[in-house]
Design brief:
Elements: E1 2-4, E2 18-20, E3 40-42, H1 50-59, H2 66-76, H3 90-99, E4 106-113, E5 118-124, E6 130-137, E7 142-145, E8 149-151, E9 166-169, H4 172-187, E10 195-198, H5 208-219, E11 231-235, H6 239-246, E12 253-257, H7 263-269, H8 278-292, E13 296-302, H9 310-323, E14 327-333, H10 347-359, E15 364-366, H11 380-387
Parallel strand pairs: 7-10, 10-11, 11-12, 12-13, 13-14, 14-15
Antiparallel strand pairs: 1-4, 2-3, 4-5, 5-6, 6-7, 8-9
Bound molecules: iron/sulfur cluster.
Length: 393
């Protein structure tokens, strides 16, 4: 079922103060006016870690403790409008409403699948780009799949997002907004958002600083208080950043999109493999496990006739057993993309593949991905939306 929230019109990007976003994901609160310069983005409240918000309020002449009240309102109670924060003075609410929007993302379209258990939301950014978020309701959890970039530079052969390359990184605030949107969706069904996976559009470890700031904001006990262990960061194999992630204070989970057990095949599916081949990737994963004591999930998108053969399954089992990485494999039957020549194997073939990997002693789970009928593979709804005729602004 498709629900158009505001189509055919599209929201007008808000006119906002512009601030530079530095390479560490930190945001200067210097207000600026005029034409955006390269690297400048509008900033919203969701971009600000608690100390930054405190500084901003103090600069406005408000006591610093108001920042915690704001966090409690916008994250604890999921308030969508400053006007509802009646524990703040009216003048401060008015000042914030005029100078610091909560978010710069606008929902454009929402689709449901799996009997309403999967909801895909398409957002428009301040600069007219589109990103997707998927919220999945399970009996025991509610998981949001967040996008971290507009497009992606990695260019995996089977992925709709990678087709057009990378347009830009998302800001922390644009990622936080997706999480808050999913939390509101869950609350509307008397559920709570419990898990977050960075498996939407983009490569999180190529937008590292903003992604780690997202984790910090979500983890803050004054706000959503989202446990780091409920957050999974997925990478196609950015080896140096796997080492950086191991050194972070947050106990996030690491998922590595492997998709092939040898370099010849993986080079064709995940072009980043040419830069960081499998031996380097496995060494990085082993160091990550040794440093954190945490298990690595290897994701394996199963494609008919490409990487689903019996010999390939045995090679995968051997690779992982000999790697010494404490790991688990998630076999994910591919969500096909119309314009790409990859197909999902049969159910029998999928189960046989998983059983062969298990036989090598590697814990393996088949995960049938949600939302096939709404093109839940990352980037597909965006691709469809951009291909469709758009109304004149
Ligand atoms: S699968 Fe992930 S890393 Fe690969 S192109 Fe798509 S978004 Fe990028």
């Amino acid at each position: 079922m498709a629900t158009l929230l505001d189509a055919p019109t599209t929201p007008t990007p808000p006119t906002l103060p512009l601030v530079p976003v530095d390479g560490n994901g930190a945001v200067s609160v210097r207000p600026a006016r005029g034409v955006p310069r390269r690297g400048e983005r509008p900033v919203g409240l969701y971009d600000l870690a608690l100390p930054e918000l405190t500084d901003r309020l103090v600069a406005l002449g408000a006591p610093g403790y108001r920042a915690r009240q704001l966090y409690a309102g916008v994250y604890g109670r999921l308030t969508a409008d400053y006007a509802e924060l009646t524990d703040l003075p009216a003048a401060l609410r008015a000042e914030l409403a005029a100078t610091l929007p909560l978010t710069t993302l606008a929902p454009v379209r929402e689709q449901e699948a799996d009997g309403g258990e999967t909801v895909k939301t398409l957002y428009r950014t301040f600069d007219g780009q589109f990103v997707e978020t998927v919220t999945m309701f399970y009996p025991d959890r509610v998981t949001v799949c967040v996008s971290c970039q507009v497009g992606c530079a990695v260019g995996c052969a089977f992925c709709a997002t990678g087709l057009g390359g990378l347009t830009r990184n998302l800001t922390t605030g644009e990622m936080v907004a997706q999480v808050v949107g999913a939390a509101r969706l869950a609350r509307g069904r008397d559920r709570a958002l419990t898990n977050l996976v960075m498996m939407g559009m983009g490569e999180p470890l190529q937008n590292y600083a903003a992604t780690m700031k997202l984790v910090a904001i979500l983890h803050d006990p004054a706000g959503l208080n989202f446990g780091a262990r409920r957050i999974t960061i997925s990478t196609s194999g950015v080896v140096p950043k796997i080492g950086a992630l191991a050194a972070e204070p947050y106990q996030v989970n690491l998922a590595v999109s492997l998709h092939a057990p040898d370099d010849a095949l993986r080079d064709t599916l995940v072009p980043l493999n040419r830069r960081y081949p499998i031996a380097e990737l496995m060494a990085a994963c082993r160091r990550y496990g040794e440093a954190t004591g945490r298990r690595v999930s290897f994701e394996y998108a199963l494609m008919s006739g490409i990487n689903d053969g019996e010999a390939t399954a045995r090679a995968l089992g051997t690779l992982l057993r000999e790697s010494g990485v404490l790991c688990h494999v998630n076999v994910i039957p591919l969500n096909p993309v119309d314009v790409l020549p990859y197909a999902r194997p049969t159910r029998v073939g999928i189960e046989r593949f998983a059983e062969t990997v298990r036989a090598a002693g590697i814990p393996t789970t088949v995960r049938y991905s949600r939302g096939v009928e709404i093109a839940a593979a990352c980037g597909q709804l965006r691709a469809e939306h951009m291909a469709a005729p758009q109304p004149a602004p």
